[in-house]
TrEMBL record:
<dbReference type="InterPro" id="IPR038050">
    <property type="entry name" value="Neuro_actylchol_rec"/>
</dbReference>
<feature type="transmembrane region" description="Helical">
    <location>
        <begin position="210"/>
        <end position="233"/>
    </location>
</feature>
<feature type="domain" description="Neurotransmitter-gated ion-channel transmembrane">
    <location>
        <begin position="214"/>
        <end position="297"/>
    </location>
</feature>
<dbReference type="GO" id="GO:0004888">
    <property type="term" value="F:transmembrane signaling receptor activity"/>
</dbReference>
<keyword id="KW-0406">Ion transport</keyword>
<keyword id="KW-1133">Transmembrane helix</keyword>
<dbReference type="InterPro" id="IPR006029">
    <property type="entry name" value="Neurotrans-gated_channel_TM"/>
</dbReference>
<keyword id="KW-0812">Transmembrane</keyword>
<protein>
    <recommendedName>
        <fullName>Neurotransmitter-gated ion-channel ligand-binding domain-containing protein</fullName>
    </recommendedName>
</protein>
<dbReference type="InterPro" id="IPR018000">
    <property type="entry name" value="Neurotransmitter_ion_chnl_CS"/>
</dbReference>
<dbReference type="GO" id="GO:0005230">
    <property type="term" value="F:extracellular ligand-gated monoatomic ion channel activity"/>
</dbReference>
<dbReference type="Pfam" id="PF02931">
    <property type="entry name" value="Neur_chan_LBD"/>
</dbReference>
<feature type="transmembrane region" description="Helical">
    <location>
        <begin position="239"/>
        <end position="260"/>
    </location>
</feature>
<dbReference type="InterPro" id="IPR036734">
    <property type="entry name" value="Neur_chan_lig-bd_sf"/>
</dbReference>
<keyword id="KW-0472">Membrane</keyword>
<dbReference type="InterPro" id="IPR006201">
    <property type="entry name" value="Neur_channel"/>
</dbReference>
<dbReference type="Pfam" id="PF02932">
    <property type="entry name" value="Neur_chan_memb"/>
</dbReference>
Length: 299
């Protein structure tokens, strides 16, 4: 088997830089399947998305195919660097673009020439988010993979399923995964068209933490503004009570602002709500000052 393997991958017979087709005028079709393992992070401030997953690439290597008479097992396991692989880059990455350049992921070659390559990685990407309905928002992030080694006339991606498989998916505590979608596209790179595949993730935020720790306390604080008019003017606590409520709302507003991106096309409704409460609290403090002043003038 070792002799057979060495003969097949001999440099005179096999060049890992050339598509593994006997007729180079044909298009090489690469089937892609994405297996989602977990959603690592969705960061609203940096507008980034990170997930953990595996990619299953499948194509036919006509040069490596063999017959039953060769007395070789049904499959061999060469090193990834020894055979042809599509060069795949992550277009919307925040870190390393060529994710699988030094990959040591397993490669399986079957007797009929079918090659299965299974690289896995973290996919840190940029993700433009709409924070208008925060924390009841729904976000769509994606990863875009492009075949850089050959143009679309030589290599084409094909999605095995129109969705990402999630049999090994681990639930995320902050986000519910509503659906996934896998689709192939053409990437226009100036003078050449490249085959690309895009994996979309539609997620909905779980708002329980925000409601219990931020929103409900702020709503309760807003009701405390009403009681500033119940406190007698002669008690001396009317103004200090209103200022205390005003400062508490300011702290919550600062906390929420730290959770959101500074540059946003739309202003979240929760920020508008907190700003209105802040204005109302300021008005109650001003009214309290006027009431105390009038009370002192009467005395």
């Amino acid at each position: 088997m070792l002799t057979f393997f060495n003969d097949r991958l001999d440099k005179q017979n096999y060049n890992p830089q050339i598509r593994p087709l006997i007729d180079q005028s044909h298009v090489l079709e690469v089937t892609v399947l994405f297996e989602l393992v977990s959603i690592v992070e969705v960061n609203e401030v940096t507008q980034s998305f990170n997930c953990n997953g595996f990619l299953f690439f499948n194509w036919t290597d006509e040069i490596l195919a063999w017959n039953k008479t060769d007395n070789v097992d049904n499959g061999i396991h060469p090193l990834p660097a020894d055979i042809w692989r599509p060069r795949v880059i992550l277009m919307n990455t925040l870190e390393k673009r060529d994710l699988f350049d030094d990959d040591k992921a397993p490669v399986f070659v079957l007797r009929n020439g079918t090659v299965i390559w299974v690289p896995g990685s973290l996919f840190p990407t940029s993700c433009q988010m709409n924070m208008t309905n925060y924390p009841f928002d729904q976000q769509t992030c994606h990863i875009k993979l492009v075949a850089m080694s050959h143009d679309e006339r030589e290599l084409q991606f094909r999605a095995l399923y129109p969705y990402a498989r999630n049999e090994t998916y681990t639930l995320n505590g902050e986000w519910d995964l509503l659906k996934t979608e896998v689709r192939t596209e053409t990437f226009d790179a100036s003078y050449v068209n490249l085959s690309s595949i895009q994996v979309l993730f539609v997620m909905k935020r779980r708002p329980t933490f925000f409601l219990l720790n931020i929103l409900f306390p702020v709503v309760f604080l807003s009701f405390l503004n009403i009681f500033v008019f119940v406190i007698p003017a002669e008690s001396g606590e009317k103004i200090s009570y209103g200022i205390t409520v005003l400062l508490a709302i300011s702290v919550y507003m600062s906390t929420v602002s730290g959770m959101l991106p500074r540059a946003s096309e739309t202003l979240p409704y929760v920020i508008i709500y907190l700003f209105i409460l802040l204005i109302l609290s300021m008005i109650t403090v001003i009214c309290s000052i006027i009431i105390v002043q009038l009370h002192n003038m009467e005395e």
